[in-house]
Amino acid sequence: MTLPLRPALHAEDTLLSRLLDGTYPPGSLLPAERELAASLGVTRPTLREALQRLARDGLLEIRQGKPTRVRHPEEGGLRVLAHLSRTGDLGSLVPHLLDLRAALLPHWMAAVHDPARLQAHLAAPPTTEAPEDFTAFDWTVQHLAAEGSGNPLAPLLLGAFHEVYGRAGPLYFAAPAARERARDHYRALHAALALGPAAARQVALTTALDSVALWQEAARG
Questions:
Q1: In a domain, 216, yes or no
Q2: Measured in whole angstroms, how far is the alpha carbon of residue 146 from the centre of its chain?
Q3: What is the reported pLDDT for 3?
């Protein structure tokens, strides 16, 4: 059962939807606080909390004594992804997440200085068929690779996708073929890490692209 969002988060998501669909276009001014709160069905203190959160994410500019100005959505950065994962078409996000995985994971895998933790994880893939278990396992693969790469920005970048991945991942792993292929991928990655950076990079790229192809094939079917 999906739990209802608390009022401030509901107001925030509704406002963000209006920003993204052009109801309040970039450069425009939001309605007066009383009017906006009424349209969202929340109190003014709750509205202020939602506005402050969106302002912190760079989507709004709150000016003392003046109307709140709408900034461009891209100024909100990766925060917008979390909103889309809650309110948008999750299926449309899966291929983009897979593409991003194919772009980043090979570099992180090749840069892992001490692969012992990652190898130990890869050696014990899920024994269940639950898509959520595969999603959690695969996320840990990426996290350990990012953390082990020695690039301090890698875990931060990956972390920005955590909520989106947690929601979209089960869609991909819902297919038995995806789970079976993933186990093959994990075995290949485990073996490649023992062979050195070049092998780790190549196998990570090959397996990631295979995941993209598998999703595309499923989408066509």
A1: yes
A2: 15
A3: 40
162 to 78, 113, 140: CA distances (angstroms): 11, 24, 11
| pLDDT for residue 112 is more than 90 | yes
Give the pLDDT confidence score for residue 88 in this predicted structure: 62
Domain that holds residue 68: 7-79
For CA atoms 187, 114, 200, 208, give the dihedral sign: positive
Q: Taking residues 104-124, what's their average pLDDT?
A: 95
Q: What is the CATH number of the domain that holds 71?
A: 1.10.10.10
pLDDT in tens, 140-153: 999 999 999 999 99
Q: Are residues 111 and 48 in the same domain?
A: no
Q: Model's pTM, two decimal places? A: 0.73
Residue 140 lies in a domain: yes
Q: Which distant-in-sequence residues (6+ apart) come within 8 Å of 191 by Cβ?
A: 203
Query: In this structure, what token pair is assigned to residue 15?
Result: 């406002």
Q: What is the CATH number of the domain that holds 213?
A: 1.20.120.530
Is the pLDDT confidence value at 172 over 80? yes
Number of domains in the chain: 2
* Cα 159 to Cα 149: distance, rounded to the nearest angstrom: 15
